[in-house]
Amino acid sequence: MNAILKDGPTIAIVDDDASIRRSLLRVVQSAGYQAEIFASAREFLEWLPRNRAACLVLDVHMNEMSGFDLQERLTVPIIFISAHDDATTLARIERSGAAAHLQKPFDPSTVLSAIRQAVQVSRDRLGGWGGAGLEGTTQASDPLSPPSSCEGSGGAGGGKP
Length: 161
Hints:
Elements: E1 10-14, H1 18-30, E2 34-38, H2 41-47, E3 55-59, H3 67-71, E4 78-82, H4 87-96, E5 100-103, H5 108-126
Parallel strand pairs: 1-2, 1-3, 3-4, 4-5
């Protein structure tokens, strides 16, 4: 098992299923990443102003706010996860610019591969570990906030579908 990277990237996990959150947390931490888990998009949005994430592992289908609705507010690479997708949902994921889409249940190595790629996108975009930002906002006090040129770019999970 790798040591947790204290100054390394944080992976945010948002899923309304507690068993999925726990499973993903174990996988992410076993690879040496820091991770934060959230039961809803609202919980993640409350955490975000004081923190940052290099990427987001996000359930598509949740109560209150869907994964798609949350993605529209963010400028961070997104890895969508879902259990059952119809053709409309799959098409929307494809158009969303997400870094990856994983079907539940998923293989840990597939999850970690997608996370590594998303973290690299975040690092390349921001010249550091990166950080989730709200669409249309600037966080001038945070040097890792996405530059305004990234906002709304339909890049790897960073923009609107």
